[in-house]
Amino acid sequence: MTKKWVSKMTQYTQTFALLKANLKRDWIKILIWLAVLAGMFVAVAAKFEGIYGSPKQIATIAQTLRSQAMVSLFGPMTHASLNTAIIFASEMMVFWGIFMVIFNYSLSVGATRGQEESGLTEMVLGGHPVGRLAPIAAAGLELLVANSLFALITGFGMMAANMPGSDFNGNWLFAVTLALVGWTFGMISLIFAQLVADSHNVAIYNYAFFGITYLVRMMTDVANPDYTWLSPFGWIEKAGIYTENNWLPVGLLAILGLIAFGMAVALNVNRDIDAGIIQVRAGKRRSRFLRGPATLLLWNQKSISLFWIIGMAVLGASYGSVFNSISKIVNDSPVVRQVLGASGIAHAEKTQLLSFVGILGVIFGVLAVVGGAMVINHLYTEEIKGYLQLVNTKPQSRSYLLSTYFVYGWLLSVIILFAALMAAMGAGNAVLKHPLAFHYFWRTFVALVPVLTVFISALVALIGFLPRWRSIVWVLLGGSFMISYFGRLVDLPTWALKISPFYWFRKVPINEIDGTPVIWILIIAAVLIVIGYIGYRRRDFSN
Amino acid sequence: MKGDLVLETNGLQKSFGKFKALKDVNLQLHKGEVLGFIGPNGAGKSTTIRVILGLIKATGGSAEVFGQNVWKDSVKIHQDLAYVPGDVYLWPNLTGGQTIDLLLHMSGQAHTPRTDDLIKTFKLDTSKKNRTYSKGNRQKVALIAAFSTDVDLYIFDEPTSGLDPLNEVIFQNLVAELKKAGKSVFLSSHILSEVEKMCDTISIIREGKVIETGSLEAMQHLTRNTVVVKTQNPMTALKSAAGVHQLTFTDGHETAAEFSVDSDQIGNVMSLLSDSRIVQLKTTPPTLEDLFLRYYSANNDQKVGE
Hints:
Pfam family, one (chain B): ABC_tran
Number of strands of chain B: 14
Helix content of chain A: over 70%
Largest interface: A-B, 34 and 39 residues
Oligomer: heterodimer
Structural class of chain A: mainly alpha
Family (chain B): Belongs to the ABC transporter superfamily.
Domain ABC transporter (chain B): 7-232
Low-confidence stretches of chain B: 300-306
Number of strands of chain A: 0
Radius of gyration of chain B: 23 Å
Keywords (chain B): ATP-binding, Nucleotide-binding, Transport
Protein name (chain B): ABC superfamily ATP binding cassette transporter ABC protein
């Protein structure tokens, strides 16, 4: 009995040593994420009273938040009497939940498959007295440490911010719920890391799973919030922060996380190192299709590209399917109806819907850049991994190679955006009494293409000149999104808002596209592209 | 003579920041020749090859392939060149067969019966995904593609580091075939027996400098043969003989000895030995191993042959 127990425990030998090594490797990453996530969270909280302090301000925002559009984005607002803290919670909950999940995914993939791919796990397990389950346990603990730090910083930060309507219980519930949702999705990611054999596929499974939970949350919130319990991501809304302060979701998330970890461990025991539970089947012995860098890129990227396009179309369609409820004017009292008249109501409804299309455009645009940029990033990751050394010694020029990735990435991002908008239009017009004309969606699309282009060009410039700093493009993209999304919430000055390329098209599709910023943005993009090509032709390849 | 130079570098230098990876690399590969490029890990072999392939830019000196600049004209040069890296990394989602076809297509070549023969010879299961291959199998994929490519220059960077002895022999035979067909081969290695068997000329690199170039025979005159000998009468005269080094008597009567002798003194030493009546004699010519050890255990500024 004891012997068996001892042999079980030896499977975890050196877990803490590995944890220490992981933290040593990742501490900068964790620190930056925490500074941004916890820091911004607390900063917004501290400033929030100034924006939504007075009853009048609260009443105005409450109206917006109760509209179906906002419910689909932020979750439902059920509480009757509102205060600053409740507004804060309902605006921040879902978004910060998303960021926490992304943060944890990036850590967990790196600590599991990423580490295994680099050969580190094999060295550690094969050559040192380290338990077989130590790496996965260390990964679980690393996430626990990172999320606990988040909870501590936000918890104390919220207490310091001391918003009207906030209390000790609510502050800590908020902090712990966000930390736990991150950790739990991280633990679920550990399962996927056992199923498939490379980090790329783990990331696909991760985000597919998260996408489903997010969509379920969104659809059920709009249709019937009771069903939101179906989605683990929806549980965070059920905590009723600053209202009911329900700790049940915290317990549920913790249990789900532990179960996921247990499953991951069970799967880990039953697989070989560097292998996945899902076996790779034998493939073709010959290929007529593969002829050069372009066909190779298409071949390697086809599944994930399709996944992006379909996924974004589904996202677009699900937003579209709630168009009818979004168009409803929240304040449709008889007096208002009388004043506006039938055509006036229709006009107001249309304007409300069109501004929602504009917001959707920004969200789709950001995601489209992510999809395209991931392709272009491959040009560098394949270079470091050594895959390109055989391509670079063939009679193809560097410019051609860069063009292949650049054009593919740019096209993919444009197609993703188009697919999402068209799906939103299709689904939306199916549920609307007065369908929205195609040209509104087309205008949104056309306005966003230069924005996509400038982000993609920035990445091309980085890959050409400073490939190690290519992640700057995520900072630019995230920053621009944050500025245009939260900028107005936190009352940023106009010059700061103007940094975001999205700012220049904020009135689209209600108004026409302004040509001047389009030209400027395209000029900047052209300069960045030229810089990228010059850099790429001149620099040493790293492998 | 200049006309049949396939590869030439003169005073080639490459620095990474402050670190000088290549200080002075001079190489010459003539048409139809197999040039061995040996040196320990970190001596600059791969860096030199990467400069020659136009993957990284030299910071000094010149490098030409087919009389063209390796950096500016890399695309043209690559039309007539096949390369197998020391560590082969392949796209995990492709099968070995798909990879071979892709590599052939990119060089403007086609999958020929020779390709199929090579796949059979190396016993590679081409239906498997690259991610399931071992290092040796990934190397086979690149080797099969390279050997079935019909070009003028073949560059191999430590080509057999992942292969078992059987496949090593296959590789050596294939290189011999290339040589017979008049192709030029540039081969880097730290496996000396491999270079010894295949190469016409050898260049030795150490700490970023090519310190010696020549045929194996030409280098041997610089080195010492190892002699193991038994005689009837004591070999006292050996102790004072010129060109004899590391003399040890293996019995008390000084009738059994081991020593090394400079190649140009071997005649004199032999006549000394025959005076003592040889019973048993074994001389071993220096292997590259010995050459190698001698060069690399030497001080930095000690020239070869001193």
